[in-house]
Write a structure and sequence with these properties.
Blueprint lengths: L7 E2 H8 L3 H9 L6 E2 L5 E3 L1 H15 L4 H8 L6 H34 L6 H6 L9 E4 L8 E4 L5 E6 L5 H11 L4 E3 L7 H11 L1 H16 L6 H11 L6 E3 L8 H13 L7 E4 L15 E6 L7 E2 L9 H7 L3 H7 L12
Parallel strand pairs: 6-9, 6-10, 7-8, 8-9
Antiparallel strand pairs: 1-3, 2-3, 4-5, 10-11
Helix pairs in contact: 8-9, 8-10, 9-10, 9-11
Length: 345
């Protein structure tokens, strides 16, 4: 067949659906979407394929795993209850945080009714994004002490840079400057069972959250390794301060990385913020960065870190893309991080 005005190529279909072409290929590989082919063998998406793809995207936006999406499309209720329960839990958490904001507004209205004007700072805190920086500090070495301000706190912030760019030092300072921030280093991978097992045995609620997350990740195609368990225990632990994670892909293969970023996204925009240091394109797919995600680039020339928009032509975009590599390439070059004279990345 040949493509016509009624059929979209893969890039056009992905753009209309708000996902990446990589995601569409994954849906096809799982049998969720069946595009047509042109005479030359190119994928094209007609009305039926686009309708099905839109349904898949909608279910993914609800947090359903690929396996759960498959069951829903087959009309099989198996596994639907835990998927809905997980969605309910996440929405209730978001509702609770929204409720706190509503209560602050209600209290302010009461003050106004009594002739008391709320403080400017209280009003500013209601704004999104915040007018005041969420973190501000003088940059450490290798920078020259320039002032750095982070003005947006999003659900996922990627910290990217080449070896020796200073991204580890930036990550540590962010963890110190963010309210309740926690730096999660690579020591999480040293005998992970030694620290995860006591936590899980002592906290039934944590054990349930971790079990639910691991089941979802397994349905996404991830093997449950010690490294992935350590990451999930970290993510599901108590606290609402930002988690700043050193090389989030460490110890995870490509399938686990892809499942992990899908898991982080399904938590929604009001989830505990995660700052993920990464050099893996499986985690940071520039074509898939959403509105609740941010990219921080540490330039190789030690210019101050900057926010980079995720589209070609934006300042810093090519530098970010150059820093990223596939998990296979990352595995081959991982040892270089400890051999250079420039210090940690």
């Amino acid at each position: 067949m040949t493509a016509s005005a009624r059929f979209l190529n893969a890039s056009e279909a992905a753009r209309q659906l708000g996902v990446s072409a990589k995601a569409l290929r994954l849906y096809e590989a799982r049998g969720l979407v069946s595009p047509n082919r042109t005479d030359a063998g190119w994928r094209v998406y007609g009305p039926q394929a686009m309708k099905r793809a839109a349904e898949v995207v909608a279910l993914r936006d609800l947090g359903f795993s690929l396996r759960q999406v498959q069951l829903v499309l087959l009309g099989d209720p198996q596994g639907l209850e835990p998927a809905l329960a997980s969605l309910q839990t996440r929405l209730e958490g978001q509702l609770g945080r929204l409720g706190e904001t509503v209560e602050r507004i209600r209290a302010m209205r009461g003050d106004v009714a009594r002739g008391q004007s709320p403080g400017l700072a209280d009003l500013v805190r209601l704004a999104t994004p915040a007018s005041e920086p969420v973190a501000a500090f003088d940059l450490p070495w290798p920078w020259g002490g320039e002032r750095f301000e982070l003005r947006e706190l999003r659900a996922i912030t990627y910290i990217v840079g080449s070896l020796g760019s200073g991204k580890t030092r930036l990550a540590r300072r962010l963890a110190e400057a963010l309210p309740g921030g926690v730096f999660v280093g690579l020591d999480r991978l040293e005998e992970p069972a030694g620290w995860t097992r006591p936590l899980l045995e002592a906290d039934a609620a944590l054990r349930a959250r971790v079990g639910s997350a691991l089941a979802w990740l397994a349905e996404e195609g991830a093997d449950i390794t010690d490294a992935l368990l350590a990451m999930v225990v970290t993510l599901e632990g108590e606290g609402d301060g930002a988690l700043v994670i050193d090389m989030i892909e460490q110890g995870l293969d490509e399938a686990a990385q892809s499942a992990l970023i899908a898991h982080l996204r399904r938590r929604g925009p009001l989830a505990r913020p995660v700052f993920a240091m990464t050099r893996s394109c499986a985690l940071l797919d520039l074509a898939a960065v959403g509105p609740h995600e941010l990219i921080l680039l540490c330039p190789a020339n030690h210019s101050p870190p900057s926010v980079v928009a995720p589209y070609p032509g934006a300042p810093g975009y090519e530098a970010v893309a150059t820093c990223l590599a596939s998990p296979a390439v990352r595995a081959r070059t991982a040892g270089l991080a400890t051999t250079g004279a420039a210090g940690p990345g």
